[in-house]
């Protein structure tokens, strides 16, 4: 049983290395609905995530760009594969545990920020996107239809 556990961990380590060397969805989108970028000041890892969202609120296309350690880059790559097609509200509910499941490995405390950076960036970007949409909707609602005014001075 112990040997099996070691083999599985080796498989996940290989997956992390593969995604850091050959990341999926690496790049930028031409006209994203969401673009958010953040840097981990402790280590210098930097991730930008671009997202196109459907009218229903589902991720139509997603890409990331940035630089950093193998874990941060692999986490961004794996996350973009995991969330593509999902609703933005579902992504906002993702927690550390789900991200660690996507990574498939346990992270030491000092590497946790590296592994969580992409999720943090994506969730902050979604929150900003939703806030912007809400502001636009309120502006549109406040303008409303033009009221008809009666001219009482007509004889």
Characterization of the model:
The chain has 155 residues and is of the alpha+beta class. It has five helices and three strands. The chain has helices at residues 2-21, 70-83, 88-92, 96-103, 112-143; strands spanning 34-39, 46-53, 59-67. It has a three-stranded antiparallel sheet with strand order 1-2-3, covered by helices on one side. The radius of gyration is 22 Å and the shape is elongated. The mean pLDDT is 86.
Give the strand order of the largest sheet, numbering strands 1, 2, ... along the chain.
1-2-3
Major β-sheet annotation:
3 strands, antiparallel
- Point out poorly predicted stretches: none
| Structural class by helix and strand composition | alpha+beta
What overall form do the CA principal axes indicate?
Answer: elongated
Whole-Å distance between the termini? Answer: 97 Å
How many β-strand stretches? 3
Mean pLDDT: 86
Strand content: 5-15%
Q: From the alpha carbons, calculate the radius of gyration and give it in angstroms.
A: 22 Å
Helical content band: 40-55%
Helix count equals 5
N-to-C SSE string, H for helix and E for strand: HEEEHHHH
List keywords for this structure.
155 residues, alpha+beta, 5 helices, 3 strands, elongated
Secondary-structure map with pairings?
Elements: H1 2-21, E1 34-39, E2 46-53, E3 59-67, H2 70-83, H3 88-92, H4 96-103, H5 112-143
Antiparallel strand pairs: 1-2, 2-3
Helix pairs in contact: 1-2, 2-5
């Amino acid at each position: 049983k112990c040997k099996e556990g070691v083999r599985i961990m080796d498989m996940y380590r290989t997956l992390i290395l593969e995604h850091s060397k050959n990341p999926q969805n690496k790049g930028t989108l031409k006209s994203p609905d969401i673009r958010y970028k953040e840097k981990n000041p402790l280590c210098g890892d930097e991730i930008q995530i671009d997202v196109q969202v459907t009218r229903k609120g589902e991720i139509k296309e997603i890409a990331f760009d940035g630089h950093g350690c193998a874990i941060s880059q692999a986490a961004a790559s794996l996350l973009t594969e995991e969330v593509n097609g999902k609703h933005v509200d579902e992504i906002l509910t993702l927690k550390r545990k789900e991200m660690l499941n996507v990574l498939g490995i346990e992270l030491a405390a000092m590497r946790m920020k590296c592994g969580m950076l992409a999720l943090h960036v994506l969730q902050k970007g979604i929150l900003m996107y939703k806030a912007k949409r809400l502001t636009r909707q309120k502006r549109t609602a406040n303008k409303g239809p033009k009221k008809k005014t009666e001219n009482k001075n007509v004889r």
